[in-house]
Structures are given as structure tokens and as C-alpha cells.
């Protein structure tokens, strides 16, 4: 399959279009967490149910991530990503029209099928276009865009719910995804490559490396999503005004992009391992700290800066765990691993919160899972040698 190459400068245009799409994904995935107090009041749901609704957007990845890789080899990255973003628009609209948790969950699943296309194919698209230091920078930009969407969601969705009702937050997510889709279709430029359309699997060693890197990403996100997901509920339970949750999540997300870029630059000069180890330690400390002390602003700053700087490095390891000809399918394996854990972990942390009697139990559970990143990294590094 031969595609038309684009000048080097045009690759950055494609990257920024993918960044906007990733912001839309972050905006949508945070909706249930942003509306947590509203949904609990409206439907009388427990933390475990709230956590299940958070995780449902990741459930389709369990079955769709690997097929997305194969479909991209057959039809191209652009078409599959576009199809996925259409599903994200439709899924948010279904949730907006729901009359209860079941309907909201159904919309989350539909949007989740669309999000699979983005998460599987965007890192592969970056690896196809960038090399060396540019790869680290581009991957940091791409991964760092996601928390910007989360921060925008926390700033706007609660206010929309107060003014127009909770369905308006889901409608806003559909609008953001539709705008991102239009920009992506206009800016996308293909790269020249000769790849077989035949279905083939990565080698056994590649599969093992992909699964291990997927577990590293899963444990990183155990802390990331549950910190942001349960933060509004614990802030409200501790009697803080609403602006405290907004500011804390702003600090926990807006600093991610520059810090992920910094992490990529430092890794290019000093090696990825020191950045990764420091990031895991800082993330674990921030997530657990919120459980034991009532200092949300401090932990938000620590979490959003040093606790996030290693995210692009992890995705980079996953992307490069397979050869270029196996990269699309390989990222499907990487994200299938992640989606299995990402679907179950929010509900698990929610049960820990119910057991503890408040959301602090969720943070303890999430911090313990985050610390497992280091043993999975050690195993991956040993095998890759």
C-alpha cells in the first residue's frame, strides 16, 4: 500500500490536529467524574456505580483495540480515526438523552468504541512521522493534550450542569468532538509507506513486551484517572467550596503538557529510566497524600507536574515494542491490555471508597496500583535486553 508523503513541516500540522482530537477525548472521558455529585444526587447511585460509569468508556477497548489495528492496515489510519470520532459524537448524544445510569452507560460504551481508534492509532501515527528527539517531543505533546481536555471538562461541565442541567455537559462533549473531527479531516497528511495489507501478528517476544508496557500504562492511569475521577466527590464531602475542585484539577492537568515535554527532553539527554522512576514515585505520593491529608492544592500541583512527566515515555515504550510493520496491531495489543485494567480499576477503587466510607479509600487503592508500575517496568526492561 503506497501513500503520498508530505513535507516534514506538514507532519506537525497533522500532529496538532491529532492533539485537538485527543483534547476532545479527554473532555468526554471526564464528564462522569465532573458530574459525579450531580449524578449521585439525581439517581442516588453509590461510588461503585459511579466508578463503573467512569470505566465504561474504556470497556470497548477490550474487544476493539486489536481489530482497530488490523482495520487500519486495511483502510488506513485516517479513515478509522474519522469513524471513531463520529462514534464519540453519537455516544455523547446518547448519554445526553438518557433518563438514568443505564442510558448514560450505553452512550459511554458507544463513545468508547470511537475512542479506541484514537488511542490505538495516534501513537502509531506519531512514530510513523517522527524520529529521535522529535519523536520524544511529539509524543509528549500528544499525550499531554489529553489532560488539557480533562481540565477543560472540569472547568466547564459543572457550570453547564448548574445552568442547563447535567445533559448539557454531554452535549458539549459531542460538539467538541465534532469540531475536532472537522479539523483533523482538513489537516491530515499521509506518510509514504509500503506495508502489507495481510493480517499478521507480532512475534511472541513483541507481544510480551507490548503486554508489559500496557501494564505499565495501566498502572500509571490507575493513579491518574482515579485521582481526577474521585477528586470532585472528596472535595465536596470535606466541605470545600466548588472552586477548590476546579482549581485543584486545573493544577493537576494544565501542567501536564509542559512537564511531559520536559520529561521527554530530559529523557533524550539523561535517559528515560530516571525520569520514569521519579515520575512513578511522585504520582504515588500525590495520590496517596490526598487520602491522608486535606491539602488538595498541594497534591494537585505535585500530581500535575512531576507526577505526570513520565507519561509520554511509557507510551513511547509501548509504540516501539513492535517493529514498524507490526505497529498498528501492536498498539492494539498494548491498549487491549490497558483497557482490561482501565475498565475494572475505577469500579475496584469505588468499592474501596465504599468500604472506607468516603472517597479516600479510592485514593489508597489507586496509589497501591500505581506503585506497581516499577516492577512491570523492570520486567519489560529485562526482556527487552
In short:
With 385 residues, this protein is mostly helical.
Protein topology:
Blueprint: H1 8-29, H2 31-34, H3 36-43, H4 47-55, H5 61-75, H6 77-96, H7 101-129, H8 132-164, H9 167-187, H10 204-237, H11 242-254, H12 256-270, H13 272-292, H14 296-304, H15 311-319, H16 327-356, H17 360-371, H18 373-384
Give me the CATH fold name. Growth Hormone, Chain: A
In the CATH classification, which architecture applies? Answer: Up-down Bundle
Which term fits the overall shape?
Answer: globular
Mean pLDDT: 85
* Quaternary structure: single chain
Count of all domains: 1
CATH class: Mainly Alpha
- What radius of gyration results from the CA coordinates? 19 Å
Give, in order, the helices and strands: HHHHHHHHHHHHHHHHHH
Beta-strand content estimate = under 5%
Protein traits:
385 residues; mainly alpha; Growth Hormone, Chain: A; 18 helices; globular
Characterization of this structure:
There is one protein chain. The chain has helices spanning 8-29, 31-34, 36-43, 47-55, 61-75, 77-96, 101-129, 132-164, 167-187, 204-237, 242-254, 256-270, 272-292, 296-304, 311-319, 327-356, 360-371, 373-384. It is an all-alpha fold and 385 residues long. α4 packs antiparallel against α16. It has 18 helices and no strands. It has a single domain, classed as MFS general substrate transporter like domains (Growth Hormone, Chain: A, Up-down Bundle).
Amino acid at each position: 500500500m503506497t501513500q503520498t508523503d508530505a513535507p516534514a513541516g506538514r507532519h506537525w500540522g497533522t500532529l496538532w490536529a491529532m492533539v485537538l482530537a485527543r483534547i476532545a477525548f479527554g473532555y468526554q472521558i471526564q464528564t462522569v467524574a465532573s458530574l459525579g455529585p450531580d449524578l449521585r444526587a439525581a439517581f442516588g447511585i453509590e461510588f461503585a456505580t459511579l466508578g463503573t460509569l467512569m470505566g465504561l468508556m474504556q470497556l470497548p477497548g477490550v474487544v476493539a483495540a486489536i481489530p482497530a489495528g488490523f482495520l487500519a492496515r486495511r483502510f488506513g489510519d485516517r479513515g478509522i480515526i474519522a469513524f471513531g470520532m463520529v462514534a464519540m459524537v453519537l455516544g455523547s448524544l446518547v448519554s445526553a438523552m438518557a433518563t438514568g445510569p443505564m442510558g448514560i452507560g450505553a452512550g459511554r460504551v458507544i463513545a468508547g468504541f470511537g475512542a479506541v481508534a484514537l488511542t490505538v492509532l495516534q501513537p502509531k501515527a506519531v512514530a510513523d512521522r517522527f524520529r529521535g528527539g522529535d519523536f520524544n517531543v511529539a509524543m509528549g505533546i500528544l499525550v499531554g493534550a489529553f489532560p488539557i481536555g480533562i481540565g477543560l471538562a472540569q472547568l466547564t461541565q459543572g457550570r453547564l450542569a448548574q445552568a442547563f442541567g447535567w445533559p448539557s455537559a454531554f452535549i458539549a462533549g459531542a460538539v467538541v468532538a465534532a469540531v475536532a473531527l472537522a479539523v483533523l479531516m482538513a489537516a491530515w497528511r499521509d506518510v509514504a509507506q509500503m506495508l502489507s495489507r495481510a493480517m499478521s501478528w507480532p512475534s511472541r517476544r513483541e507481544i510480551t513486551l507490548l503486554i508489559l508496557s500496557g501494564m505499565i500504562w495501566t498502572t500509571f492511569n490507575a493513579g491518574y484517572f482515579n485521582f481526577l475521577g474521585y477528586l470532585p466527590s472528596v472535595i465536596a464531602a470535606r466541605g470545600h467550596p466548588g472552586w477548590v475542585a476546579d482549581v485543584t484539577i486545573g493544577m493537576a492537568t494544565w501542567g501536564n503538557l509542559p512537564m511531559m515535554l520536559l520529561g521527554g527532553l530530559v529523557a533524550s539527554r539523561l535517559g528515560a529510566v530516571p525520569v520514569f522512576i521519579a515520575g512513578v514515585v511522585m504520582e504515588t505520593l500525590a495520590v496517596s497524600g490526598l487520602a491522608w491529608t486535606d491539602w488538595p492544592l498541594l497534591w494537585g500541583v505535585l500530581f500535575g507536574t512531576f507526577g505526570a512527566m513520565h507519561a509520554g515515555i511509557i507510551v513511547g515504550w509501548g509504540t516501539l515494542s513492535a517493529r514498524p510493520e507490526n505497529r498498528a496491531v501492536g498498539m492494539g495489543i498494548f491498549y487491549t491490555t490497558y483497557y482490561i485494567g482501565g475498565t475494572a480499576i475505577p469500579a475496584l477503587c469505588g468499592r474501596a471508597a465504599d468500604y472506607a466510607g468516603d472517597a479516600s479509600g479510592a485514593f489508597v487503592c489507586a496509589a497501591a496500583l500505581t506503585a506497581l508500575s516499577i516492577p512491570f517496568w523492570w520486567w519489560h526492561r529485562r526482556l527487552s535486553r
